[in-house]
Amino acid sequence: MTIKDIARLCGVSVSTVSRVINDRPDVSPAVRAAVLEAVRKSNYIPNNSARVLVSSSSDAVGLVVRGLSNPFYSDIIKVIGRSIDEAGYTMVMQQIGSREDEIQCGAVMEREKKLRGIVFLGGRSDYTAEELRPITVPFVCCSYDNSFGSLGADRLSTVSIDDGQTAYSAVSRLCALGHRRIAALVSETDDRSISELRYRGYLRALADHGVEPDPALVACAGSFGLEDAYRATRELVAGGAGFSAMFIIADAMAIAAVKALEDCGREVPRDCSVIAVDGLPLSQYIHPTLTTMCQPSERMGAESVRILLDMIEGRSGNRRLVLESELRGGASVAPPRGAAD
Amino acid sequence: MTIKDIARLCGVSVSTVSRVINDRPDVSPAVRAAVLEAVRKSNYIPNNSARVLVSSSSDAVGLVVRGLSNPFYSDIIKVIGRSIDEAGYTMVMQQIGSREDEIQCGAVMEREKKLRGIVFLGGRSDYTAEELRPITVPFVCCSYDNSFGSLGADRLSTVSIDDGQTAYSAVSRLCALGHRRIAALVSETDDRSISELRYRGYLRALADHGVEPDPALVACAGSFGLEDAYRATRELVAGGAGFSAMFIIADAMAIAAVKALEDCGREVPRDCSVIAVDGLPLSQYIHPTLTTMCQPSERMGAESVRILLDMIEGRSGNRRLVLESELRGGASVAPPRGAAD
DNA sequence: GTGAAAGCGCTAACAT
DNA sequence: ATGTTAGCGCTTTCAC
């Protein structure tokens, strides 16, 4: 069933059918109705490839997800998928490992799939202009920004929280309660991405509260995975350096860490307070409920798509959006033992 | 940069370039090398739409996900995405709500995007042949089957566990420990899908162990979401009907239920045992670790794609695959209080 | 082994 | 308001 068949069925020309299909105004109501009826009756669906070929612009928006292990992304993906859909575009999703290059991947997809735009979910924060050159369609970095780079606001769009500041707030909170021996559980301390940003926020908070940082209190899990976080926490405890609180860069890792602490005989928060960043819905249902800095994940996804479509459809240029994170108090934080509270 | 440009660059015809690009044998080594070189140098990427248009078959495989709230799907999606990718296809993902019709959605996508095949992740188990007619490409039902329908193994492909039997095993285990008052937390009892299947397994297990089912012990959350599960569990407790154990159709719901029980002053498993179905990795990190029937999610995703590609590429017809679920012992189950153990 | 040419289904001038 | 027609970039006969 092609546009020709519909045209023949209605006794009109293909261009008239095309006009109806594309909601052009210059068609008489009678003809329009007849065509619409024929389309309905014959279950005709336009051939997308042909439309894309001739208009040399598709309806595909790419989603490049880096590091699927983080459950924080699933909510965002849901929202992004829905938003793209509602706007009448098609989402083409690609996942890559944390060692692959998202820009490279996006560049290839852009050409192969004729993408109109790209959402990068998770990535490095140190892009250079040079590196970004292969990407020629609008794109937006969702959940991270260019903190380690020096790209102007006109060079890329980002929607994120201030990761350094968020970590800073979390750790400051621990300090305010009297904690001085505060461990950090990160993925890496120098990956030029979110883990490093939050780690730096941790260091800055310690410094501002006059706490000497202790390398023995920094645990690198190597990923955002549960297993790695569990192992790293046990090793941290086994290391023997005492601490009364932990700052953890992701909720999922924190859940594993709490388990590790308890398996080592340390009760949370009595023996060790735990504060994290992300604000997974699930974190409110574990025991103890996790104290965490919530990222507005739904909004993050929705705004990313909104900005992207604004660019695609020419309504605006690049934009940077920094959303507020917000403390969600749980039961995993308490003053250190023996503190005069 | 089009195929014409490459042809001009090499001083050959477009058909020769096409042959090289498509790895046809009838090209002289010298010409092939020259073309390949030109392609590389000019960063030429074939226009996918044109290829699809002319060959009327794309490289797109659809993934229709129904009910994103279930975190059980995230692992599967990851695997499905990777598998599709590795096979050289493109994944086009679409999410729909639990009230939308996945078949309808698949049918539209099939035509619009010229899909080669479809993976349905989650759906009803009562498809009829009539209903399936709009789908003309190979498809596979991942994580569910046709238990409520009567379609022969030649009419559709499925990869799933035996949901009824899995629930039966879980509940039998509770019975074997001496539990007689066993509550069930489901999404719906009559949705012709997984929730109903597992609910039926629960009923069957009760019957086989001589336990009278009590409607007051069945809580319908209305979804797989955490909040609904939490609320439904609290209402169940508030209802006043006593019970010493709960069977819960999904890990995520169980996590919320455990919290609800504890918030009502009931300790798990001392006051109430909890057993679930899914086997999320996370369930091993909560307190108490969840006793659950593990679905082999990775395998489920991988096999679904394998079967789909086998069909797409004509290596086989429809197939049904029932994978084994497996008990993962946790700390959330114990004999009822006062049981002579 | 290579080239010429006919479309694939559609949109967008350009006519009328 | 409607029809005619020329491609979009590619694959694929069919000649040579």
What are the SSEs and their pairings?
The structure is a homodimer of 341-residue chains.
Chain A: H1 3-10, H2 14-21, H3 29-42, H4 48-55, E1 60-66, H5 72-86, E2 90-96, H6 102-112, E3 117-121, H7 129-132, E4 139-142, E5 157-161, H8 163-176, E6 182-186, H9 194-208, E7 218-220, H10 226-239, E8 245-248, H11 251-263, E9 273-278, E10 291-294, H12 297-312, E11 320-323, E12 326-328
Parallel strand pairs in A: 1-2, 1-3, 3-4, 4-5, 5-11, 6-7, 6-8, 8-9, 9-10
Antiparallel strand pairs in A: 10-12
Helix pairs in contact in A: 1-2, 1-3, 2-3, 5-12, 8-9, 10-11
The structure holds a DNA duplex (16 and 16 nucleotides).
Explain this structure.
The structure is a homodimer of 341-residue chains. Chain A is α/β, with parallel strands linked by helices and 341 residues long. The first copy, chain A, has three domains: 3-52, lambda repressor-like DNA-binding domains (434 Repressor (Amino-terminal Domain)); 56-161 and 296-324, Response regulator (Rossmann fold), CATH 3.40.50; 163-295, Response regulator (Rossmann fold, 3-Layer(aba) Sandwich), CATH 3.40.50.2300. The first copy, chain A, is built from twelve helices and twelve strands. Chain A has helices at 3-10, 14-21, 29-42, 48-55, 72-86, 102-112, 129-132, 163-176, 194-208, 226-239, 251-263, 297-312; strands at residues 60-66, 90-96, 117-121, 139-142, 157-161, 182-186, 218-220, 245-248, 273-278, 291-294, 320-323, 326-328. Chain A has a six-stranded parallel sheet, with helices on both faces. Chain A has a six-stranded mixed sheet with strand order 7-6-8-9-10-12, sandwiched between helices. In chain A, strand 8 (245-248), helix 11 and strand 9 (273-278) form a beta-alpha-beta unit. In chain A, helix 5 (72-86) runs parallel beside helix 12 (297-312) and helix 10 packs across helix 11 (251-263). The longest helix of chain A has 16 residues, at 297-312. The radius of gyration of chain A is 25 Å and the shape is elongated. The model of chain A has no long low-confidence stretch (mean pLDDT 93). The A-B interface holds A 45-50, 52-53, 58, 68, 71, 74, 78, 81-82, 85, 90-95, 108, 111-114, 226-227, 230, 252, 255-256, 258-259, 262, 281-282, 284-287, 289 and B 45, 47-50, 52-53, 58, 68, 71, 74, 78, 81-82, 85, 90-95, 108, 111-114, 226-227, 230, 252, 255-256, 258-259, 262, 281-282, 284-287, 289. The structure holds a DNA duplex (16 and 16 nucleotides).
